[in-house]
Design goal:
Distance between the termini: 85 Å
Radius of gyration: 23 Å
Structural class: alpha/beta
Strand order of the largest sheet: 1-2-3-4-5-6-7
CATH class: Alpha Beta
CATH architecture: Alpha-Beta Horseshoe
Number of strands: 7
CATH superfamily: Ribonuclease Inhibitor
Number of domains: 1
Order of helices and strands: HHEHEEEEHEEH
Number of helices: 5
Strand content: 5-15%
CATH topology: Leucine-rich repeat, LRR (right-handed beta-alpha superhelix)
Helix content: 10-25%
Length: about 230
């Protein structure tokens, strides 16, 4: 038998819809970005039409005022972790917000069950934390040409394929702890050889043994037969 939690009737409500306040989106430490919920038709087919009260019709003016109030375009530091993105409409709204973060420099997206943000571009982002998500490849990460610090701990990245895409970025620090690729043979050497500018991996500075071994062919060319 399936038992609903006491909070089930509130799962589509948005706590940040507070009237008559001057707080903007970039002033919230960890805002929710979900919308009010699925359409009435979708709720009907789910059998949940009674879980949500009739919504107030929102005018275009009110929508525009709310968009200005959010002010995502001017965010410099933003924490959108633990969003509990359980429905497709929540994920889509979340990505719409990310596309508006044209000035964000520090962004935390921890534990959001994210799988693919390759369509997102964060032109000014220097620090990105996407720990505890479901990424399986570096190709699924957002475009971050100015990235300096990237944390990918506790994802599902199995190989280092695609890591060279960060070769032409100012990336200095990378965290890949608790990903399957961490158990790859010569893991640290491979990462540092792919990212020559990298200074720290998994919280440990680059060590002499992290440098890739000299090319064996080079020694063959230089040997002298007496």
């Amino acid at each position: 038998t399936f038992f609903k939690l006491p909070s089930d009737s509130f799962k589509y409500l948005s706590w940040c819809d507070i009237e008559e306040h001057d707080v903007r989106g970039n002033q919230l430490h960890c805002p929710r970005v979900r919308e009010a919920g699925p359409s009435k038709e979708e709720l009907f087919f789910r059998g949940e039409e009674l879980t949500l009260k009739k919504r107030k019709e929102v005018t275009d003016t009110e929508k525009w005022q709310k968009k200005l109030q959010e002010n995502w375009e001017n965010c410099a530091e933003l924490n959108l972790s633990f969003q509990d993105l359980g429905d497709l409409y929540q994920v889509e709204n979340f990505k719409r917000i990310l596309q508006r973060l044209i000035r964000v420099e520090k962004l935390w997206l921890v534990d959001n069950s994210l799988t693919d943000l390759s369509a997102i571009r964060l032109p000014r982002c220097r620090e990105l934390n996407v720990n505890k998500n479901h990424f399986t490849s570096f190709k699924q990460l957002p475009k971050t040409p100015q990235i300096q610090h990237l944390s990918l701990a506790e994802n599902n990245i199995r190989t280092l394929c695609g890591i060279s895409d960060f070769r032409h970025t100012p990336l200095e620090s990378l965290i890949l702890k608790r990903n399957p690729c961490e158990f790859q043979e010569r893991y640290r050497q491979l990462v540092f050889s792919s990212l020559p500018n990298l200074k720290m991996l998994d919280g440990i500075p680059k060590l002499p043994e992290d440098s890739p071994p000299p090319d064996v062919k080079f020694f063959f060319k230089m040997c002298t037969i007496l």
